[in-house]
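[stage:ingest] chain + small molecule (N-acetyl-L-glutamyl 5-phosphate)
[stage:ingest] validated
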Amino acid sequence: MKLRAAIAGASGYAGGEVARLLAAHPNIEVATVTAASSAGRRLGEFHPHIGPLADRIIRETSVASLAGHDLIVLALPHGHSGALAARLEEAGEKALILDCAADHRLTDPAAWTAYYGSDFSPAWTYGMPELLHEGESRAAAQRALLSESTRIAVPGCNVTAVTLALQPAVHAGLVDPSRIVATLAVGYSGAGKSLKPHLLASEALGNMAPYAVGGTHRHIPEIIQNLAVCGADASATGITFTPVLVPASRGILATVVAPLAPGVGSDGVASAYDVYDDEALISLMPHGAWPTTAPVTGTGLARVSAVIDERAGSLVAIAAIDNLGKGTAAAAVQSANIALGLDEYAGIPMIGVAP
Ligand SMILES: NC(=O)C1=CN([C@@H]2O[C@H](COP(=O)(O)OP(=O)(O)OC[C@H]3O[C@@H](n4cnc5c(N)ncnc54)[C@H](OP(=O)(O)O)[C@@H]3O)[C@@H](O)[C@H]2O)C=CC1
Ligand SMILES: CC(=O)N[C@@H](CCC(=O)OP(=O)(O)O)C(=O)O
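[stage:predict] done
[stage:export] tokens:
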């Protein structure tokens, strides 16, 4: 018998992608889908690509509609998921709960207040199994934490791309984390499906638009938190983070540059990134090839490469992910699999579509 899942926010992009992955999961079935303004309508109106779930009627999101499942995935806007999670806790909910929003990602209340401004919710176990902890030779500690967890915070998509690109270098002490520069090309689905003028096709097509420039993006403290886990001094970590909307539906290409520590050469970089050798979802590009987003679209995969810029004295690390794949839904399913004692990669697409 399969485990039963409820997805809150199932009419949205993140909830829809979780539904798509769970619809093909060998051990989990989608039992309940909930949302807000779309309650009472068929899921197929919003996600016609998920045929097996098309006739599911979307229910109102409430403690009652989410009760009675083995796992609950919250894919709601920031703030809403934290408030709902608090009500689920009060009701004594025993199911595994995963939050795709930011509400339970940050451990530092001051960082939350500075970047989000709303009420702080306590941090849950961070849903990035590949997160390297200081001193370990392969990513085992985060997996151990996830295997014991019933509350999981799914990482931000941009955060995932930057972390996967740079963490081996920080972990191995190859770079100075005080002057990191991350520039990301990001697809529009990262902004969700709500109607906003700057997200219209007439604005987006043929345009490339930076946003949250100058240290204001809310993913900055989450990246610093991750790099601290792998060994950086958070108080001395500085990141200039600039996302740029490009005319694509899905995908994030993060180019991350950091000053090299003295004496670091190509061999040191290669051996630091070997830490990904056993990771099924992260592939290192062959020498001289760079990650691109198309091959990871629709999958839970990440592609990574790193190279030294000798003249500039810097490391250039690049990662490509699908924001809705490894950036959200695949991370949620992977983390849920670990917490539920299932095959870590069950239900995670590993083969892309082309062209
Ligand atoms: N898009 C992405 O690439 C990523 C998104 N995330 C996070 O996932 C969450 C969802 O994002 P995304 O799917 O993009 O957003 P969407 O705008 O596409 O979807 C939002 C969903 O939340 C529902 N919703 C809104 N308000 C409420 C409420 N008060 N109560 C219950 N349901 C509500 C909506 O229902 P209805 O349509 O019926 O009103 C809809 O199903 C966000 O926190 C986002 O930051 C995380 C990583 C990446
Ligand atoms: C294109 C776009 O707007 N992308 C979003 C990323 C959304 C995301 O990763 O999710 P969280 O909001 O859950 O952190 C952004 O940069 O804010």
